[in-house]
Amino acid sequence: MKIFKVMLSIVLVVFVLAFVGLGIFLKAFNLNQYKDQIAQKISEALHRPMGIENLSLEFSWKQGIALEVKGVSIKEDPAFAPALGFESRPLSGEGTLATIESVHLFVDVAALFNERRFVISQVEVVSPQLTIIRNPDGELNVQRLVAASQNVPPAPPTEQNSANAPPANQHSPSSKTPTMDQFALSIEALRINNGKILFIDKSQVPPLNLGMEQLNVEIQHFSLDKPFLFNFDGSVLAQQKNCQGKGTGQVDAAQGQLRLDDTRVSLDFSSMDVSLLKEYFEGPIAGEANLHIAQMVVGKEGLMVLSGKGEVINGRIKPKNFKSSIDHIDAQWEMSEADLALQELSMNVGPGKVITKGRSQDYLKTNKFSFHTDVEDVFVDQVVDFSQLPIKFEGKLNGSMDVQGEGMDPAKMLSTLSGQGHYEINEGVLRGMNILKLFLESVSQIGNLGEKLHAQLSDYYKEKLAQEDTVFDQITADAYIKEGIISVTQAQAKTAGFHLLSHAQIDLAQNIDMDASFSVEKDLTDMLVAAAEQFAYIADESGRIRVPAKHYHGPLASLKVQPDTDYLLKTVFKNAVQQDLKQLLRKALDIEDVPEGQHSGNPQPNEGSTSGQDSSADSSADSPADSPAGSPAQENKGNPEDILLENVLDMIFK
Q: Looking at the predicted structure, is the pLDDT value of residue 32 above 90?
C-alpha cells in the first residue's frame, strides 16, 4: 500500500511538472514566427492570397490553451475582383473576399488529458466581413473557394438534388470514422460578433447590392459528424437589428457541403433605410417577411437542394413616381432549388386591388417567368402622379394581363417581356380640358362658323360645352407586349358627341408613338352640317364625321391629342371644289345629269310601282350628309363620262 502511494505521488508530480512545463513552453513559444508559413499553406489550399497580421499562444489553468489570431484577410478571385460595396459605406475592401479582425480559440486542456478528447471549448470571431458575388453567368465566388479547398474543379449537380437528401455525414463513408482533424473542429461554443455580409449580384445592371450588418451568430456543439443548433440576428438596410433566425445545421467537410434543416428567418421591413433603394422606392416601408426552409444543401456546385416556403404580411411601400403607397401587401410562395411558385401576391392601391399569381423556373440562372395579374377598381390618379403632367386624369382601372419573360438583369427582363391583356377605365374624367370644346373650336375654323355653329347646338351639347372637364362613359383598350414594347390597340374612349379611337406603341424609355381619330356622333354631325353644308362632304355612310388627330411621337408625359385641322380644311376644300369642277366639266363636255336614283345600266322602275317607291326611299337615304368624304355614292358610277371625271379629279388632287 505504501509503495502504491509513492507511485501515485510520483505520477502526480510528473503531471504537475508536465503542466508547468507546458505552460512555460507555451508562454515562451513565439508562434508568430510561423505566421507567414501558415498563411502560405492556407493560400495554396485556397488558390488565392491570404494574410495574417499576428499569432499568439497563451496558457492558463482556468481557460487552458488560448490561440489568438489577428488581422486575417483573404483576397478575391481575379475573375470576380474588384468587389464593389455600398457607395456610402463599403462593407469590405476592394478586391477582398473576407477579413477578420480577430479570432480567439480556447482548447479544453482538462478534456484533453482526462477524457482523451481534443475539444475546443470556445471560438470567438470578432468583426468578420464577407463579400459574396454572383457574376453574370450566375456563378458565386464562394463556389470557387470551396472547390479550391477541395483541390478539385466545380462539378455539375448530382442526383442529390432532392428534398429527401440524406444527412450530410452520410455522403462519404470516411465521415463515419472521425479523424483527428475532425476532433479538432469539435467546438462547444462558436460565436461571431459584429459580422458583415455583402451580396453583390453582377447578373443585374446596375449590380444589386444587399448587405447584413451587426451580425451575431451563436452555434452550440459544432462538429463535423453531428448536427448542431444555431441562431443569428443582424440588420438589413437598417441602423438597428431587424432580422433574426434559427435552425439546425450540419457540415460535411469531405463533400464540401453545408446542410440546413427546419430553419426559420424573419425580417422586419419597418426599420429599413429606403434611401439605400432610392432608385426604386421612396418614403417609409412596413411589413414582415417570414421564411421557412425545411431543407437546404449548399456545396461547391452552389445550391443543390432547397425545400421551403415564405410569406409577406401586411406590407406597405411607395414606389418611385407613385402618388400614393401600396398597402396591405400579402404574399405566399413555395420554392425549390430550381423553381419558385408565387401562389398569390395581393396588394391594395387606394381602394382598388391588384392580385398576381405565377411561377419562375430556374430562377437562379435563366429565370424564365410567367405571371397573371388582375386589376380591380384601381384609381388611376392613385398610381400616376399627374402633378408634373399637363393633364389630370381620374378613373377606375379594371382588367387583366398575362406576361412572360426571362433573365436576371432587369433590362434584359424588360426586353424579353411579352404578353397580352385587356383593360377598361370606368368613371373616367379628364380634368381641366374639355375635348368637345377643343374639337368644336378646331372645326369652327372652316368658314368662321363661330356663333352660327353654337346656334345649331342642342341644349345638351351647350351644357357639355360649358363644362371645364371631359367625362368619359367608358375607356377600353387591348394591350400587347413584345420585346419590351407595349402596343395599345383598339383603344376607344366615348364621351359626349364623339368616340376617340387610337392605337399606340410605348417603348422602355416611356416614349409614345400614337395615331388617333375622332368619330362624331350622328346628331352632332347633323348640327355641323346645318351650320356649314361643307361638312356633308366628310361624313361617312353612317352619317358621322371622322376627323384624324395629329400624329404624336414623344414623351408620354407630354402627350397631346388634337384634331388635325389641316387635314379637315384640306378635305372639305377638296370635296367642295371637286363637286364644282364636276358640274363645270359636265357642262363643258355636254354630259347630262342623271336624275337621282336613275343609274346607267339600272333602268328606272315605272312610276307608281312599289319597287319604284322603295328605290326612291333607298336613294334618298344616301344624302350628302350620309356619304363619306369624296364618296361617289350619289354619282353614276357606271357612266363612262363620270369615270373619266373621277380619274381627272384624282390626278388634280393627288
A: no
- Whose CA is closest to 488, among 460, 516, 469? 516
Cβ atoms 333, 306 nearer than 8 A: no
The winner for highest mean pLDDT among 38-42, 225-229, 565-569 is: 225-229
- Angle value at C-alpha 304, between 409 and 244, nearest 5 degrees: 75
pTM of the model: 0.70
Query: Cα torsion at 164, 169, 172, 178 (round to 10°)?
Result: -170
Dist CA 266 CA 91 (whole Å) = 22
Query: Within 10 A of 463 (CB to CB), how many other CB atoms are there?
Result: 11
**Residue owning grid cell 478575391:** 76
Model confidence pLDDT, tens digit, residues 126-155 = 999 998 887 777 777 777 765 555 554 444
In this structure, are residues 532 and 453 in contact, taking their beta carbons and an 8 Å threshold? yes
- Residue 5 DSSP one-character state: H
Q: What distance separates the 2 farthest-apart alpha carbons in the chain?
A: 159
What cell numbers appear for 545 in the block? 364625321
pLDDT digits (tens, 9 = 90+) for 387-408: 766 678 899 999 999 999 988 7
Residues 6+ apart with CB under 8 A from 58: 26, 27, 65, 66, 68
Is residue 315 within 8 A of residue 272, CB to CB? The reply is no
C-beta neighbour count of 397 within 10 angstroms = 21
Burial zone of 72 (CB within 10 Å; 0-12 exposed, 13-18 middle, 19+ buried): buried
Burial class (CB in 10 A: 0-12, 13-18, 19+), 614: exposed
CA–CA separation, 405 vs 362, rounded Å?
12
Other CB atoms closer than 10 Å to residue 11's CB: what's the count? 10
One-letter amino acid of 550: K
Q: Are 531 and 453 in contact (CB under 8 A)?
A: yes
Taking the C-alpha atoms of residue 526 and residue 89, their distance in angstroms, rounded to an integer, is 71
Rounded Cα–Cα distance for residues 187 and 167 (Å): 20
Grid cell locating 190: 462558436
Beta strands 243-252 and 257-268: pairing type? antiparallel
Q: Cα(208)–Cα(136) distance, rounded to whole angstroms?
A: 12
Positive or negative, the Cα torsion across 44, 48, 51, 57? negative
CA 170 to mean position of chain CA atoms? 41
Phi and psi (nearest 5°) for 78?
A: -55, -25
Please tell me the distance from the alpha carbon of residue 378 to that of residue 380, in angstroms, as a whole number: 6
Instruction: Note the pLDDT tens digit of each residue in 526-556.
Output: 888 888 777 777 777 888 888 888 888 888 7
